[in-house]
Design a protein that fits this description.
Structural class: alpha+beta
Number of domains: 1
Number of helices: 5
Mean pLDDT: 85
Low-confidence stretches: 1-18, 20-36
CATH topology: Glutaredoxin
Strand order of the largest sheet: 1-12-11-4-5-6-2-3
Length: 213
């Protein structure tokens, strides 16, 4: 299930008569809270998830990116469909929000066995990803599995066959969502990767980062 950020008022667990002089004040306050605050889904600030970037640099997620709002997708380079759409949507989002110094895009590989830094560099080149503010990460399978389990991202390898060269041939069935982390490594929102609400995501980023930087 994808958790979508929304600025819709939800009726609280108590009854307040519309005729009450406090009714409008309560409603106004609830609207302000729902639209200005993005609750913490999970706190990964103390997490220790080592990865390598497409350039071969070692990083620890999310600690190495402290101070940045993180827009994170979960893909693999052999993916024939959903990952390509998600990557394209992230590029559209990057263009929508402009050149913000406080935002970093990350794409974490679901297939670290095949997605080496060299393969990730090729993927970045093919999809014209600007690695100045968008890194592709790959790490040990145990690290990847632990992080994905923590955020509730399901991924399962399909039936594996072998090519004439002996190379494994398989695909990965997986969830369809991206995540937004705040500057302190706290998970704030989840959105569909293939059908994202761009304006809602931009609103979350602006809420977390304040004025455009």
């Amino acid at each position: 299930m994808v958790l979508l950020h929304s600025c819709k008022w939800r009726r609280p667990g108590f009854y307040l008569s519309p005729r009450s002089p406090f009714f409008l004040a309560v409603i106004f306050s609830l609207l302000l809270i729902s639209c200005s605050d993005t609750p913490v889904i999970d706190d990964l600030s103390s997490g220790d998830y080592p990865f390598s970037t497409e350039a071969g640099d070692s990083v620890v997620f999310p600690r190495s990116f402290a101070g940045k709002i993180l827009v994170v997708s979960y893909i693999y380079t052999h993916c024939p469909d959903i990952c390509i759409v998600t990557t394209s949507n992230l590029d559209s989002l990057r263009r929508l929000i402009g050149n913000r110094r406080d935002v970093m895009f990350l794409s974490i590989s679901l297939d670290p066995r095949r997605d080496t830094p060299a393969i990730l560099r090729e993927y970045a080149d093919v999809h014209e990803i600007d690695t100045a503010n968008w890194h592709l990460l790959s790490g040990p399978e145990a690290t990847t599995d632990s992080l994905l389990a923590r955020i509730g991202f399901i991924h399962r390898k399909s039936f594996t066959s072998h090519a004439d060269t002996g190379e494994e041939v398989y695909f990965i069935n997986h969830s369809d969502f991206i995540t937004i982390f705040d500057q302190h490594g706290k998970l704030r929102s989840k959105f569909s990767g293939t059908e994202p609400e761009m304006d809602d995501i931009a609103t979350v980023i602006s809420t977390l980062g304040g004025k455009l930087k």
